[in-house]
Design a protein that fits this description.
Layout: E1 3-7, H1 12-23, E2 27-32, E3 51-55, H2 61-71, E4 75-78, H3 85-90, H4 92-113, E5 117-123, H5 146-165, E6 168-174, E7 176-178, H6 191-200, E8 206-208, E9 214-215, E10 217-219, H7 220-231, E11 239-243, E12 249-250, H8 251-261, E13 269-271, H9 286-292, H10 300-312
Length: 313
């Protein structure tokens, strides 16, 4: 089926992507510096003969090149990144090194190894705070953080290098990803992982505003399956695509599902809306459906049921 190098393999999305690739029959080399990833996320694949893990930093060019040249991947799924918007605000130099220079190095590596396809984890953060809904790929890019700006710059790097050196470069703008293994203590935690942690502990959740704010929540297995399928396509594909459900959910919708699984949970606590918080955000997956046949399989109820089931195991 092919050989795929996955950076950020021990992370939330990375570990699910590794599993999806192995299910599809690929050989996988996972690379992670374990700055925010955890080896425990790879327990399910650790004994697989299709998988090997290497602890390395993408900015350590010599070590990464040595690993990649010994593995000889057909494709690279690049997920390693500084994943905290707040950390990118606090340390823009680190954000640049990990999220822009890191992309440059992966692009050069793809050139040197003559890979067929790069799959890059971009973000809906490239759009910033837009009132044009649903968000389409042509929506103006008004990043409001160094993180969003770096993701958009990386899209240009990968697609420019791909056209120059002959590899496909798919840049996937993930919306609000949730699911098992998302660290609720991470500064980039989504609201669902925080809610899940508190419901499991029998604690109330805090809602800023009236709970009517909307997001396009997408289950991590949908993200991972799309990453894997694209990496293994025989014909290279280049483009930037929204990866979302196209179905906005309110925080009150999320709370109702949690309460159905935790009937004795305390009622949520409502506080004043926070200044600067985006009220409504959702995208349309029409372009990725047309180009790659992607369609999210999990409704919010099904995805949350899977997440809650993993918490109760």
């Amino acid at each position: 089926m092919g050989r795929v190098l996955v950076t950020g393999a021990a992370g939330f999305i990375g570990s699910h992507t590794v599993e999806a690739l192995i299910r599809k029959g690929a050989e996988v080399c996972g690379v992670d510096n374990l700055r925010t990833g955890h080896l425990s996320n790879l327990e399910e694949v650790g004994s697989s003969p299709q998988f090997r893990f290497e602890e390395a930093d993408i900015l350590d060019g010599g070590k990464l090149e040595s690993i990649a040249k010994s593995f000889r991947p057909d494709a690279i799924v690049h997920l390693a990144a500084l994943v905290s918007v707040q950390e990118s605000m606090d340390d823009p130099d680190l954000n640049f090194r990990l999220n822009v220079e890191g992309s440059h190095r992966i692009g050069v590596l793809a050139k040197e190894l003559s890979v067929r396809q790069i799959v890059f984890a971009s973000s809906a953060a490239t759009y910033g705070d837009t009132s044009d809904l649903p968000v389409v790929e042509e929506t103006a890019k008004n990043s409001i953080s160094p993180y969003g700006a770096a993701k958009y710059a990386s899209e240009a790097i990968f697609q420019g290098y791909g056209r120059s050196y002959g590899f496909g470069a798919c840049c996937f703008r993930y919306f609000n990803v949730y699911g098992p293994r998302q660290d609720p203590k991470s500064p980039y935690s989504g609201v669902i992982s925080i809610f899940a942690d508190r419901y499991r502990a029998g604690q109330s959740v805090t809602v800023f505003g009236d709970g009517g704010q909307t997001r396009d929540f997408i289950f991590v297995e949908d993200i991972a399956d799309n990453n894997a399928a694209t990496a293994l396509k025989e014909t290279p594909v280049t483009g930037s695509f929204n990866v979302c459900t196209g179905r906005p959910s309110t925080l009150l919708d999320i709370i109702r599902v949690f309460e159905s699984h935790f009937p004795g949970a305390p009622r949520p606590v409502f506080q004043a809306a926070r200044t600067g918080d985006i009220v409504h955000s959702y995208g349309t997956p029409a372009q990725i459906q047309m180009a790659l046949g992607f369609e999210a399989r999990f409704s919010i109820e099904e995805g949350l049921a899977r997440l809650i089931g993993s918490l109760k195991e």
